[in-house]
Amino acid sequence: MELAEPGLFIDGVTITLEGREIVSLTRKVAPGSVLTVMGPSGVGKSTLLAYIGGFLDPVFSARGRVFVNGTEVTALKPEDRHMGVLFQDPLLFPHMSVGANLMFALPETLRGREARAKRVAQALEGVGLAGLEARDPATLSGGQKARVALARVLASAPRALLLDEPFSKLDADLRAQTRELVFSKARESGLPVLLVTHDAADAEAAGGDIVRIGA
Amino acid sequence: MLTHLGPILAIGLLTVPVVFGLAGTLLPAFGYLPALGGTSFDLEPFRRLFAEPAILMSALMSLATGLVTAAFSLVTVMLFTAAWGGTRMFARIQHLLSPLLSVPHAATAFALAFLIAPSGLIARVLSPELTGWERPPDLLIVHDPLGLSMMAGLIVKEIPFLLLVTLAALPQVKPKRMRALIASMGYGRISGFAFGLWPSIYRQIRLPVFAVIAFATSVVDVAAILGPTTPAPLAVRLVTWMNDPDLSMRFLASAGAILQLGVTALAIAIWIGVEKLGALVRERLACAGCRFRRDRALRLGALAVMLASAGAIFAGIAALALWSVAGLWQYPDVLPARFELRNWMRVLPNLMEPLATTLSVALVSTIIAVVLAILCFAREDQIARPPGRGALTVLYLPLLVPQVAFLFGLQLLFILAGIEATWTALVFAHLVFVLPYAWLSLRDPWRAFDRRYDQIAAGLGKGPMRRFFQIRLPMLARPLLAVAAIGFSVSVGLYLPTVLVGAGRLTTITTEAVALASGGNRRVIGVYAFMQMVLPAAGFAVATIVPALIFRRYRDMHV
Hints:
- The complex is a heterodimer.
- By secondary structure, chain A is α/β, with parallel strands linked by helices.
- Chain A has a single domain (2-212), classed as Rossmann fold (3-Layer(aba) Sandwich), CATH 3.40.50.300.
- Chain A has 7 helices and 9 strands.
- Chain A has helices at residues 46-53, 78-81, 98-105, 113-126, 142-155, 172-189, 200-206; strands spanning 8-17, 20-29, 34-38, 60-68, 71-72, 83-86, 160-164, 193-197, 209-212.
- In chain A, the strands form 2 sheets. Chain A has a 5-stranded parallel sheet with strand order 6-7-8-3-9, with helices on both faces.
- In chain A, strand 4 (60-68) and strand 5 form a beta hairpin.
- In chain A, helix 3 runs parallel beside helix 5 (142-155) and helix 5 runs parallel beside helix 6 (172-189).
- The termini of chain A are far apart.
- Chain B has a two-stranded antiparallel ribbon.
- In chain B, helix 14 (342-383) crosses helix 20, helix 15 runs antiparallel to helix 17 and helix 20 (477-493) runs antiparallel to helix 23 (522-550).
- Chain B is mostly helical.
- Chain B is 75% helix and 1% strand.
- Chain B is globular.
- Chain B folds into 2 domains: 1-32 and 347-559, MetI-like fold, CATH 1.10.3720; 55-340, MetI-like fold (Orthogonal Bundle), CATH 1.10.3720.
- Classes of the chains: A alpha/beta, B mainly alpha.
């Protein structure tokens, strides 16, 4: 049956604000591929991510279902959905070291201090930041922070990635680099990705389908 | 689940004591109090009240005190913000705000008294060279019949409070851009501010201004320390009657409390009239395009009043501290001849019990208040709707109704319930006053918290409890501790609720200090008043140092 297919399935999701429709979408995103939602700033394209992630502001009303690998995530609490989110700011927890940020993200099922530390080391190595566990996130460069944020979200073993203009605050060459890293990591882990952006270059680099809203 | 309880408990805590307290004052005011033999309603208590000597004089004094205090403080704050907002001087004064706010009212009053009395620090500095006084002159400066010292004592304390609420409202009017825009039209700093920015600021600080009026019309501790005695302001006389061993005086006191309610209401009504008049004048001047470019004198004047009021508190504190360690100190020497710790050694044993009560009541009421405030805000996040104006009025209720008017009744209810003078009742009474401050001071930091941290943590699979305890709580540790320090200082400074609910059996540093006022032993008063200031200051120190230590390795967690 089609719902059990792997990947992200957005099934008739419609979000409205005071009766006005903002987004209406039915799409499938295969594992490792990217669906890009494009639109100018301020049309409310982030509400789609918020709905899927489970933190839509109650002023909006929404209907429709979202499945990942056959599970209806919209029926779950936000913390049970395991939707990895990346915002335009890295939002590393400022009161934790880089390593603790990743530790916090690791699933509880991974037990043992050593095993967890090892997984954190691997995750940092995977984004080219080996050995930075003890650092205060505030001392990292913008590009490093973005990569730690990526490593953190991947460490939590998400079902899918929700990207909310995650590259828009990086300068041009860093943006291309980070973009490449994010997409290759998602492919590597076989994660379906939903990207919201107003930057055509993001959409092009993502290589998947493009949906335009609010134009 | 727990968050559903937050707003309900908070609203109940703020309204129930006020409403039932008012009822408990109203009934005896009309002669009904079966426990004391009043079984029918009549106007006898009011007849007795108006037969009291100079009662209208007392009421008038209270009315004037409220209006003068509020007007003087507000105008000073407005002019100062208008003239100096955005400058380095403004920032410097801002830094003084927390320490000034944390000083309890009674301690401020003592500080001022020790400064301006004929034998106070100012007279000593000036004498005998400038004044020729070899002995303290026989001048009635403290307890002056017009209540000017009392008003000054209230003003120096209310200026920092009104400046704080103004500062909180300021960012929303985008002062930098507006100031530049208005200046480009050729308006002077003060007139531009008054015409362009002040109306929208004032709308936001109206309730705090009303709270100042309500407090100043019914203040007891400051009035007992600095106020006139023949006759004393209304609230002071009421408390004397209330504490009279002759229980039938309670009818009189209750009737007086209703009069007090009327005086405060009248003061606020007059104020609203003045508001209207002020708005009219402002509109006229603004529409006439009056620029008032030459406002230099006014600007300097505002700064001078500001500095003088802050300076008075600090200098007064120094005087208190000096007296607490003074040995022989002859007039008109500026400094004591000898310093000794004997005063402290003598007072300390008596200080211990009030100190323990002060600390335990302040800590517990603060913790409960902060938890309730957090629950309210968490609930607000859930329903994603900020509370309306009604909620804000409820929050200000205990600050807008004169304390005597509902505390008399509340005390009566506590007596009937058999919990008068218990520690629990005292914590409860303090909570009524601590909660509004906790809520108000947590509001901005809580709303400034970036919700996306929460969303990220949810995406990482963390439930609400872990998100709160591992992310939000540590990230808000600094503002939360600051809020706690404010709540703590409010509790430490509370006089009337403590006196009435503690009924003389449970005493705090503040009630002990005020009780010493009439005795006039400056060394002992110095010790108590100094302790009164040390406790809140210690609270603020802890609130600053603890997060700095915990998060010393994390740069973004510094201020």
